[in-house]
Amino acid sequence: MKFKPTEYKLKNVASGRIFEDAGWTLSDPESPSPSLVRAVYSNKQFTPREELPGLYRYADWMPIKRILKHSEAPVSYHSKGLGKALGLDNLYITFSGWCPRIGAEMPTCSFKETEAYSVLARMGSDEKRILVLQSAGNTGRAFLQVCSDNNIPLAVCVPFDNLHNFWFRKALNPCVKLIAVPHGFDYYDAIRLGEKLFEDDSRYFPEGGAKNVARRDGMGTTLLSAVEEIGRIPDAYFQAVGSGTGAIAAWENNLRLIEDGRFGTHKMRLYISQNAPFSLLYDSWKSGKRELADLDPELGRRQSEVILAKVLSNRKPPYGVAGGLYDALADTNGDAFTATNDQIVHWIMRVRELEGYFIDPAAASAVQALASAVKEGKVKKDEIIMLNCTGGGSIEAMEQGYVHKEPDLILDPDLSAEEVIKRVSALF
């Protein structure tokens, strides 16, 4: 499909400096201190593009050069069942997953597809290097699927203990490779492994995580979906977080909508949730400090092993950096919650009963946060609430048949960079 690249520049959140994107800029090269950069779009009005397919209806606020195949947009609707059960008149659920009955058909059943279709469309079609991504599960699955469908070379580094997440409706294109760190290592170790590939920057380049404006603005389409349905900015926003990048993305699009002016001029309160006992972001926020709370690596590994929502166990989140999660929560008068495994199981089953689909453990953590906020009086009965259900429908989708993607390679993250590069390069 012929597409005119979206017009935008980049802004250093800390200094306010606006500069051109060199193509894959992840930070301001002139910044004296760590800061996220933010996309500043030429089009200041939120204008869905009816002529573009799937997620790309929001292309005017996505930093992209092209349109990729098979994208799906999140689906937002006014909840009756869950809203009534919680005593909320205006609960809107934004669902990213598989539930054809409501029009949701993301094959990987996760809102991480919104990241993948945005990040990969930011790449030029002439890119010769191999993209490298580190993932705890859903992000890697989404990128593997989208790269496979669009013939884009990709290496994904993941924990062995999370390999159950890597199921697909059919076998993947050999242009994508899955590399695992051994049993007992966690997401942080997968990050370390991937970083060793970047020493050969002529062959490999980093996706960038939270630093990548395309990742955040892809996730930010969940809010755009809700606002398109509601007609205004919500009063409060609920989401489970591992890195907090999705909440940062919602905050950033909230600011863009305020600048537009047609959907309200208020900042919605951001409420985040984690799966206890892994509660790094919760603990950091409750400490009242910008600095990330201390977490012993071995304790973090043990905590990540016992939680159901393993995708929420990021030990290197963008918390204190300028424009990061601390700033997003502080600027919106937000708060943090936790959910136990038992509470997550309860809400998985309850949402199935009330809304008609199974949600992922992470999304169930967000529902528990909403229930806690109602109980504590943090949200009012008649307020407009957005619940970002970041994944669901995997049970229903898997019933139609699936294959597991086995790792192409298992590598110790303590190997030398030279050895890692040698062994991974042999796959391509």
Structural key phrases:
alpha/beta; 6-stranded mixed beta sheet; 14 helices; 428 residues; 5-stranded parallel beta sheet; Rossmann fold
A few lines on this structure:
With 428 residues, the protein is an alpha/beta fold. It is built from 14 helices and 18 strands. The model has no long low-confidence stretch (mean pLDDT 96).
Strand content: 15-25%
The rough form would be described as globular
**How many individual helices?**
14
Number of strands: 18
Structural class: alpha/beta
Give the helix level as a range of percent.
Answer: 25-40%
Q: Give the biggest sheet.
A: 6 strands, mixed
Residue windows where pLDDT falls under 50 for at least 5 positions: none
| CATH architecture call of the domain at 75-110 and 214-398 | 3-Layer(aba) Sandwich
The CATH class of the domain at 75-110 and 214-398: Alpha Beta
Q: What's the mean pLDDT score?
A: 96
Look up the CATH topology of the domain at 75-110 and 214-398. Answer: Rossmann fold
Strand order of the largest sheet: 4-5-16-13-14-15
**What is the C-alpha radius of gyration, as a whole number of Å?**
20 Å
User: Distance N terminus to C terminus?
Assistant: 28 Å
